[in-house]
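[READ THE FOLD]
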Amino acid sequence: MVDAALLEKYNIPVPRYTSYPTVAHWKDSVSILQWEKAFSQQFDAANNKAGISLYIHLPFCETLCTYCGCNKKISRNHSVEQPYIEAVIKEWQLYLKMMNPRPVIRELHLGGGTPTFFSAARLRQLIEALFKDSDVHPDFEFGFEGHPNNTTRLHLQTLYDLGFRRVSFGVQDNDPHVQQAINRIQPFENVKTVTEQARAIGYHSVNFDLIYGLPFQSVASIGKTINQVLTVRPDRVAFYSYAHVPWTSKGQRLFDENDLPSATEKLQLYRRGKELFLAAGYSDIGMDHFALPGDELYKSWKEGTLHRNFMGYTTRHSSMMIGLGVTAISDLGIAYAQNHKAIRDYYQSVDAGELAIHKGVFLTAEDMLCKQHILDISCKGKTTLNAQFSPELATYTVPQLQKFQADGLIIWDGATVVLTETGRSFLRNVCSAFDIHLQKAAPRAETLQFSKAV
């Protein structure tokens, strides 16, 4: 088990590295013409090599979970479903005009918000519209996020029939006192039922999201939650650190900060959770993720084929990801762009026949180099500094690597950096050594408002 002193030392704000440069360093506007040109330049190679990935952001939730930092819209009015589906289809058609030959879809993920806010029929309408003018790669992976309280057997069956084989349920915590504090009342029986239904239908990978650091959590309560979760043996678990950022997530202002675990208590929650997962046969993949040996995430990690993007860890590597929907992010490999955050602005763009991108960044050669090192560390557990690594980059990176080696997080021979077993618990910290934007901004890093590593 990881030394408490190291946990304390490295429990500092660092990015989760679903992109590089991270969103904090993107520009507030991006040229649509420049983006379209870059898209056209990248599409053929990406499509021919491995196909493309699609991420669909479905933002609506019926109630506000006060811990949540995701981009969501609260509504009990389900008349919002159809206009939103139609807008996403319009956006997809704008991209289709730039894709010749037909796109090959390798990966598809429905995120939110709460995708299962939408009826099964409307989800079918959306997916069938995506498939109409595209082909599905023979080695595809489709997944979606579901709320255990409103994911029905019809949702599961409909999406299974469309090719979905992976589902992620937001569990967070099973303790009634914690659930009341975060406004997510969710009996574990609902979690168990929907998990059993998914497996009976044929889903081969079920993920649970759990959070540590929530109000009123204790070592005893989180142990009880995890032991309950282990009775149904999810194939994967994302064990996330609660990020208290009330300046950006207004719902978190409803918390009395005195009810949150202290930094020391939060570290104890993490240690207890990791201890239970490892004892139950799960492997620490990194970046908060645990997986059983039979799951594809574990297999991909062991084989060195794991990839990371805005969908998190993925087992299929496409060099192009198109994000559809409000706030969705697209990744061309050489550039990122995020859609408008306001639904009204998003609708106005697609109705006018324009892509809805709002902010983003085009990567420099230095960015590309740093990005690859971060991907290699986070997905393969090692990377090698080559001749392209300039003396200027080294002035920022080398001192960090020396510090990590002294603390046993890495083994470094001056060229190859290898993550140790201890270092796996501090993967985000090690990646930060190659984050030149972060290193240059170190004196004002606190203003970047990243969540803490633990």
Observations:
- The chain has a mean pLDDT of 92.
- Residues 286 and 424 are 6 Å apart (CA to CA).
- The longest strand covers residues 135-146.
- The two ends are 14 Å apart (CA to CA).
